[in-house]
Amino acid sequence: MTFNPAILLDNWRDLLDGLVLTLLIWVVGTVLGLAIGLVVATLQLFTNRWVAAPLTFYVALMRGTPFLIQLFVIYYGGPSFGLDLSPLTAGICGLALYGGAYFAEIFRAGFVSVSPGQIEAARMMGIGRLDIVRHVQLPQMLVIILPALANMTVLLSKETAVLSVITVNELTSVVQSIGSTTFAFAETLLFLALVYWALLEIVTAAARRLEKRVGRFMLRAQG
Amino acid sequence: MFNTTIIIKSLPLLLEASVWTVVYSLTSVAIGFCIGTLMCAARLSTSPAARRVSAFYVSFFRGVPLLVQLLISYYCLPLVGINVPSSVAAVGTLALCTGAYITEILRGGFLGIPAGLIEAARMVGLSRTQILTRIEVPLAVRFTLPSLVNETTMMVKASSLISVVGVLELTRLAQNIATSTFQPLEIYLTAGAIYFVINGVITLLGALLESRFQLEAAR
């Protein structure tokens, strides 16, 4: 077995493009997922059950089926109902819909964690429903659910690798094509693992710092 | 147009393939549980080297996407002279991956066991292995059952990725049928529904087991 890391240097442009696309997919997918999650959780809790029931079903469905199958349904099945998306768009939509279901559950737990007494008090003072969510519930619950949100965000960064299966040219896909043209599978794949590993460690460390900072604010507010 | 006949025609084949999905995912959870128990014991041991190995293992297998792990085992094992069927390599990789998560889950369970209980067991003269297998593992499993059941459903979903390295299971067969019939929407929705049912059954069984444990504890 030969080990020739120079192959990576020869292809650094493609690798960089792949990494940038992976990060882009991750960030856009996460932001959209957070938006979907917040909207779904809010609708689940504050509307009637005719709205809530389908949303609950959506959350259960996305959490109960593999992400890969979801991507296949959107990308390969989409054209059957007039949804002709590029691989990248389909992938980002898939990631957002998948993450959104998990985020919705987290937000829902967060809404429930704010004591009902506060909401009653706010309502007594004549504060509108939307303002209560914005100024009373969200600021408090965000602190509580931050670790869960951070955890899910980190998980989503790993899911981006699955997009390579529907031919999105992100990092995993780029590395695979370099591997199959040069037959340098060991170098390329180990490099790939190291990049993801480093990325995950950096993001996790950043999340821990953020949690600590926010936690400090919480302690100060209490004391 | 939504084509229901293709669903009815391919359903028996898909159900047959879903047996493999269940077999592969449950096997990897079972192996992963053994790995997780060992790694957890290492993590909580007094030996710094064992602790470091366990921490490294957990960090790597939770830090690298499963798909990348599968690609490594698929392409790189033959390079170092290990030639096993792709299904074996895939199940091994799934087991190592879920083992890392189970290590973390069990760690919480082990830490929840009262120290007095272990001391008492040692006083009665139970050996270290006996304490581990008869007292610590059963209690830790009981404490962490919801998380373990959740991890099992995650593995059922994750097993769809082994289709990428050419192992025939539900997702792979769905792909084969979808490309030969040109009805991807119907086929993938059916496959998704089967995964959904499998995970529903696992969650249900988990809840039953949990309530049984609670009854026992109450008695």
Structure, described:
The complex is a heterodimer of chains A (223) and B (219). With 223 residues, chain A is mainly alpha-helical. Chain A has a single domain, classed as MetI-like (MetI-like fold, Orthogonal Bundle). Chain A is 82% helix and 0% strand. Chain A has helices at 6-10, 12-46, 49-64, 67-75, 87-113, 116-124, 129-159, 171-182, 185-222. Chain A starts with 5 loop residues before the first helix and ends with a helix. Chain B is mostly helical and 219 residues long. Chain B has one domain (4-218): MetI-like (MetI-like fold, Orthogonal Bundle). Helix content of chain B is 84%, strand content 0%. Chain B has 8 helices and no strands. Chain B starts with a helix and ends with a helix. The mean pLDDT of chain B is 90. At the A-B interface, helix 3, helix 4, helix 8 and helix 9 of A face helix 2, helix 3, helix 6, helix 7 and helix 8 of B.
List keywords for this structure.
heterodimer, A: 223 residues, mainly alpha, 0% strand, B: 219 residues, 8 helices, 84% helix, amino-acid transport (chain B), Amino acid ABC transporter permease (chain B), transmembrane transporter activity (chain B), cell membrane (chain B), membrane (chain B)
Could you outline the blueprint of secondary structure elements for this entry?
The complex is a heterodimer of chains A (223) and B (219).
Chain A: H1 6-10, H2 12-46, H3 49-64, H4 67-75, H5 87-113, H6 116-124, H7 129-159, H8 171-182, H9 185-222
Helix pairs in contact in A: 2-3, 2-5, 2-8, 3-5, 4-5, 5-7, 6-7, 7-9, 8-9
Chain B: H1 4-43, H2 48-63, H3 66-79, H4 86-111, H5 115-124, H6 128-158, H7 170-181, H8 184-218
Helix pairs in contact in B: 1-2, 1-4, 1-6, 1-7, 1-8, 2-4, 3-4, 4-6, 6-8, 7-8
